[in-house]
Each structure stands twice: as C-alpha cells, then as structure tokens.
Amino acid sequence: MSRVRALAGLVVLAMTGLLIMPTAALAATQLKASITCDAETGAVTTSTSGTLLAVGTPPTRVTVEFQRAGGSRVSATASESLPLMAQPFTTTATTTTSGDITATGYTGTFSPATSLFYQEKLIVRFKNASTGAFYTTREATCNVDQRTTVSLSCDPVAGTVTATVTGVNGLAGGPYGAGRAVRIGYRFAQISQSTKDDPRFRSEFLGSGWNFERRLTRAADGTWSDAGYVHTITSNPYYYAEELTVGIFDAYGAVAGWGTASCTLYDGSVTPAA
Fold first, then answer.
1. Which is nearest to 56 in space by CA: 98, 100, 103?
2. 26 SS3 class
3. pLDDT digit string (tens) for 55-104?
4. 131: left (phi > 0), else alpha (psi -120 to 50), else beta?
5. CATH code, residues 31-143
6. Which residues, in sequence order, are CB contacts of 150 under 8 Å at separation 6+?
7. Which residue of 113, 128, 169, 186 has the fewest C-beta atoms within 10 A of its own C-beta?
8. CA max distance for the chain
9. C-beta of residue 74 within 8 angstroms of C-beta of residue 179
10. Distance between CA atoms of 243 and 180, rounded to whole angstroms?
C-alpha cells in the first residue's frame, strides 16, 4: 500500500522501499561528505561542503570530525578489513550567512600497485564548537577496483537499458575465500520525465540495500561475467536515464569489488544525429 505525504510543498511517494521524488528537490545545495581515492597515486583525501544551518543563521563556528569508518583491501594473495580510525581528525570551520560550510579533512595513502580492490568509508560529524551540541553526520565511500568492469547500455531504438558486469582475478585473496568474488548485488536509480513541461522524477531503493543479489559463477582462471538485467521502456517518455551501482562480495560477505555506470535512453532536448 502506498502512502503520500506533503512535505513543505514536496510530494513524496513511498512504496515498499522505493523512493520517488522530483529531482528539482535534489538540486538544492546538499550537505555532503566526500572522499577520493586516486587510482594512480594512491592518495586519499577527504572534505565536506553544503548547507548545514538555516539561511539567515549568524555565522557559527562548527567542529567537524572526519573519521575512517572502515573499508577493505584485496591483493593477489590476501584480503583485509580496514579498522576504524582510533581518533577522528578534527577541524573547525565557520558557516556563512547562507548556512553553508566547507572543511577539509584527513589525508592518507594506499598502494595502487598491489591493491586489486581498495575501499575506504568516511563518516563526518558536525557539532557546535561553543556548546558541543550535535548537528548531524554525513557518510561517503571511495572505491578503486582493478578487477570489475560495469557496463550500462542504452538503446533508444529498442527502448532497452542493459546492464552487464565482468571480472578478472576472481580467485585473488585468501585461501578460504576472503576477497574472492562469489556474490553480486545490483542497485539502480531511474530518472524519468513524462513530457517537456513535467517535473523530472528519480526513483531508487531506500537505504543501503540492493534491488537484487545472486551468486557469481567463476571460470577456472577466476574470470567471470554476469548478465545483470534488461529494462524495456515502452512509455516513450521525454527523458529517461538510469544509474547503476554494483557490489561484489566474498564468501564472508565483505565487499571485494565495486563499480558504477550510467546512461541516458531518451532526452527530448537533444536533436538526434542525422
């Protein structure tokens, strides 16, 4: 059963874990945490920016805590989990009259030469620097994957969106299955607009779960492929696009691979090539 609620002029339709909302609402400045893992240099950088306080709030000093919240690393012979950072990296920033805040967090390194897969998770906490009052948290994750290739193909003639995933070195990692690709999860977002004058909507699965999961079948040399899905769009919308996130898991449920892809099936504002 669906439920419709009006929130400050925004209509949100929630159906069994599916979130559908106008993308205009998403276009507002959002408070985000950011973490970047450079696949060439191995540099890890963290930061945050966006609107923290209401517009018109006097400039306020805010304590911003950056902390590594875990992650994983897979090499050709081993898999390991990254521990929680013992103490957060703490800095202080002052909000603007628009309520915006910008801060730079910790830096780090990893070895891109030996890391077939590297993932680092970040959590950022915001507190009032004078009173210690807690405001909110934001999270982000970076991934560097040398094993997984994710493809999302849009065919406007057939009206289809096709997802495929391939991998190599599926036998990498520990001898008991740690780091070895055995299961795959798919999560996708659909962005649609019926006509030129209609709002654009984004629908996606709520939370951090997956639309669906299944086991992977590896060849003897460790390579594998998975035919993810085919979505057929028959309504001929003005605009339609998809964004895909794929997670690869080992026998113990640890993340051992990651990939993203996106494509646009229809865009009425673009003149087709002759």
1. 98
2. helix
3. 999 999 999 999 999 999 999 999 999 999 999 999 999 999 999 999 99
4. alpha
5. 2.60.40
6. 163, 164, 165, 244, 246, 259, 260, 261
7. 113
8. 63
9. yes
10. 26
What residues have CB less than 8 Å from 219, skipping those under 6 apart? none
For residue 11, the model assigns a pLDDT of 29
Which tokens hold the place of 173? Answer: 């990692």
Q: What is the four-CA torsion angle of 167, 173, 179, 182, rounded to 10 degrees? A: 60
Lowest mean pLDDT among 1-5, 44-48, 74-78: 1-5
d(CA 145, CA 248) in angstroms, rounded, equals 10
d(CA 72, CA 179): 9
Architecture per CATH, domain 148-267, reads as Sandwich (2.60)
Tell how far CA 263 is from the center of its chain. Answer: 16
Closest C-alpha to 213, from 188, 185, 189: 185
- Delimit the domains of the chain by residue range: 31-143, 148-267
- The Cα–Cα gap between 71 and 252 comes to 14
Token couple for 183: 């299961």
Tokens of 50: 């966006």
Looking up tokens 């830096």 gives 107
* pLDDT tops 80 at residue 218: yes
Say yes or no: do domains 31-143 and 148-267 share a fold. yes
